[in-house]
Amino acid sequence: MLPFFPNPYPGELLDSVLARFHARSGNSHSGQSMKQLIGNEAVLLSYDLPSRIGTLVDRIKHVSELDSDTLIDDHT
After folding, report:
1. Structural domain includes residue 7
2. 54 pLDDT exceeds 70?
3. 55 vs 50, higher pLDDT
4. Which residues constitute the domain of residue 54?
5. I need a labelling partner for 63 at 20 to 30 A (CA). Which of 17, 22, 48, 53 fits?
6. Does 9 fall in a domain?
């Protein structure tokens, strides 16, 4: 379970939000953050993430009110 997920700034791209998560998470490797966020440390942010937004939303729903439509419409 994720302890937090940063709220996106207006117009901020999702990859920037995920980078802020990584910076604040204390994880030493980006793969650790992807494992927490997506469930797979081998996910390539720019290539694989668009098909995994639903997975991300499912994993952050207890700490964030973001939904797939908001992430797609406002942060990609």
Report:
1. no
2. yes
3. 55
4. 14-75
5. 48
6. no
- Specify if 37 maps to a domain: yes
Is residue 54 in a domain? Answer: yes
Percent helix, strand, coil in the chain (nearest 5)? 60, 0, 40
- The total domain count for the chain is 1
pLDDT at 26 (0 to 100): 94
Quote the longest CA-to-CA distance of the chain.
31
Specify the pLDDT at position 64: 95
For 24-28, which contacts have Cβ atoms below 8 Å and span 24 or more sequence positions? none
**Residue range 11-35: average pLDDT?**
92
